[in-house]
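Progress note, project year one: complex with zinc ion.
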Amino acid sequence: MKKKLQRNIIRCKHCNEIIESKSLYDYKRCGCGKVAVDGGLEYAKRSFPSFPAEDHLEDLSEYE
Ligand SMILES: [Zn+2]
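Model obtained:
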């Protein structure tokens, strides 16, 4: 069974801002604009400028 997302949250490694998407259409971009989260608890969608994502963001999402 797929783990259920409890919090959809990341930290930007460029500006250190922590951003959280709380609902499906809650698109949040960090202060410097390099990374974003979307999808709320339906799906963990991330936007970042280039791979690997770990260069730009730290995933702080919580799963059940
Ligand atoms: Zn940033």
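The CA atoms of residues 2 and 52 lie 24 Å apart.
The chain has a mean pLDDT of 96.
No further modelling is planned for this target in the current period.
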